[in-house]
């Protein structure tokens, strides 16, 4: 594995020696790329991509680990992305025409490659030293696949929203049970109040015991005389047999 990686780096560096001998001239020319440099970049890109796509997964994992140890996280992420892309596109069938441009003091090589499962666009970036700075992989998807992927993403998003809303509604519906539970807990913790005594029954009115006054001779004589005077008759014919007190008599209110 180390031999392959070393060979890969040596090929790139050797080919880049001739490539960057005319860098100053190219920078003066702006975005224009010298034909000699373009041919060198095209050859380097083709060899690098063919080598990369032919490496087994174990070798690429070892390269990722080596780049991470060297602190080159960009290339480590690029190779990790290739492992994911390779599962979608399959093995390389043929590289297309390589188009070389210069942007921001970097050379960019783009090609549309044909793979077993689907085509993909491969873009290789070279820094000022001629080393590979990054590689990007963009598979092509049909219209039906794009629509299907969009529908799946939409369903996942809407499903997540509905699940969250249902969860929130369940929590809100539980508030009344929580309130009842709090009331019961508070009632259980409160001290028991003393029972209120029942009101005492009202005392029954005492029975007025009628007083027998028939033996009071003076009272009998006075009453007899009063009756006789009111009747304009003699008291000799009157006999008082009993005397009873009459409640609520009018003479009491006089």
Question: Keyphrases for this structure?
Answer:
alpha+beta; 8 helices; Nuclear Transport Factor 2, Chain: A; 5-stranded antiparallel β-sheet; 54% helix; rod-shaped; 13% strand; 254 residues
Folded structure, characterized:
This protein is of the alpha+beta class. Among the domains are: 141 residues, Nuclear Transport Factor 2, Chain: A (Roll); 30 residues, no CATH class. 54% of the residues lie in helices and 13% in strands. The protein is built from eight helices and five strands, in the order H-H-H-H-H-E-E-E-E-E-H-H-H. Strands 1, 2, 3, 4 and 5 form a five-stranded antiparallel beta sheet that branches. Strand 3 and strand 4 form a beta hairpin. Helix 1 packs antiparallel against helix 3 and helix 4 packs antiparallel against helix 5. The longest helix has 31 residues. The radius of gyration is 59 Å and the shape is rod-shaped. The chain starts with a helix and ends in a 23-residue tail after the last helix.
């Amino acid at each position: 594995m180390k031999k392959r990686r070393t060979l890969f780096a040596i090929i790139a560096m050797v080919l880049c020696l001739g490539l960057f001998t005319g860098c100053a001239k190219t920078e003066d020319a702006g975005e224009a790329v010298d034909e000699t440099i373009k041919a060198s970049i095209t050859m380097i890109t083709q060899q690098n991509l063919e080598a990369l796509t032919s490496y087994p997964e174990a070798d690429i994992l070892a390269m990722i680990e080596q780049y991470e140890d060297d602190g080159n996280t960009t290339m480590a992420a690029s190779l990790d992305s290739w492992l994911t892309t390779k599962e979608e596109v399959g093995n390389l069938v043929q590289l297309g025409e390589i188009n070389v441009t210069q942007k921001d003091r970097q050379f960019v090589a783009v090609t549309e490659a044909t793979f077993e499962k689907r085509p993909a666009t491969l873009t290789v970036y070279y820094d000022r030293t001629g080393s590979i700075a990054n590689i990007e992989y963009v598979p092509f998807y049909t219209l039906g696949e794009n629509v299907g992927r969009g529908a799946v993403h939409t369903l996942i998003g809407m499903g997540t929203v509905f699940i969250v809303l249902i969860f929130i509604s369940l929590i809100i519906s539980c508030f009344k049970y929580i309130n009842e539970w709090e009331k019961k807990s508070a009632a259980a913790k409160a001290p028991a109040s003393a029972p209120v005594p029942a009101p005492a029954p009202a005392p029954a009115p005492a029975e007025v015991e009628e007083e027998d006054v028939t033996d009071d001779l003076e009272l009998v004589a006075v009453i007899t005389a009063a009756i006789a005077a009111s009747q304009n008759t003699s008291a000799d014919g009157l006999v008082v047999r009993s005397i009873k007190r009459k409640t609520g008599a009018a003479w009491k209110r006089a």
